[in-house]
């Protein structure tokens, strides 16, 4: 009888030990916080995706004539005003009060340096406006990063359209490696 009890205790101890080791294996390793990427476009799928032409007559197309990454970029041509370019609707992707980082690589083959600009067209509490996020002078035949940060106002937001424009109203240019991410 005593020997039987001893065996039973041994079984219970083994069972508890098994449970304890299982718990250790199941414990989750904490994950490091990551920047949330909202938009990421390298145009290697040869699709314009959510990008649209901005302004009457403006054309956008996938091109293999120049690329910052891979083989393809987005070519913006046939512009006739400085605000003409390419744009993306971010109303459903960005949140009021949150801050975002924007990075766009740009390129042109014009004879002299040209200024490229990124802007947010927005409507806050019924008021339309255009907020400049970043600008950069781009030398001919050189890929340059155009970047900046932008906080969406913590108000009623009815429009958020992000676009790439150029100071020169007839400049054609290439866009590649667009990244929009939430800033922590
Ligand atoms: Ca590319």
Automatic annotation (TrEMBL):
InterPro entries: CenC_carb-bd, Galactose-bd-like_sf
Highest taxon above the source species: Bacteria
Pfam families per UniProt: CBM_4_9 (PF02018)
PROSITE patterns noted in UniProt: PROKAR_LIPOPROTEIN (PS51257)
CBM-cenC domain: residues covered: 36-168
Protein name: Carbohydrate-binding CenC domain protein
This protein's record includes keyword Protease: no
Keyword Acyltransferase assigned: no
One GO MF term: hydrolase activity, acting on glycosyl bonds
Organism: Winmispira thermophila (strain ATCC 700085 / DSM 6578 / Z-1203) (Spirochaeta thermophila)
Keywords: Hydrolase, Signal
Signal sequence annotation: 1-26
């Amino acid at each position: 009888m005593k020997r039987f009890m001893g065996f039973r205790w041994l079984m219970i101890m083994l069972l508890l030990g098994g449970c304890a080791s299982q718990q250790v294996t199941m414990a989750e390793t904490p994950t490091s916080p990551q920047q949330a990427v909202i938009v990421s476009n390298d145009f290697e799928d040869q699709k314009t995706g959510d990008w649209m032409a901005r302004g009457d007559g403006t054309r956008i197309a996938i091109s293999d004539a120049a690329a910052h990454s891979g083989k393809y970029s987005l070519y913006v041509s046939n512009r006739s005003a400085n605000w003409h370019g390419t744009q993306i609707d971010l109303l459903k992707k960005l949140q009021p009060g949150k801050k975002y980082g924007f990075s766009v690589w740009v390129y042109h083959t014009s004879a002299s340096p040209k200024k490229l600009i990124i802007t947010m067209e927005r409507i806050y509490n019924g008021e339309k406006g255009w907020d400049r996020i970043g600008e950069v002078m781009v030398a001919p035949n050189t890929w340059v990063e155009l970047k900046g940060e932008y906080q969406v106002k913590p108000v009623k937001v009815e429009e958020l359209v992000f676009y790439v424009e150029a100071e020169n109203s007839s400049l054609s240019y290439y866009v590649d490696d667009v990244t929009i991410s939430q800033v922590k």
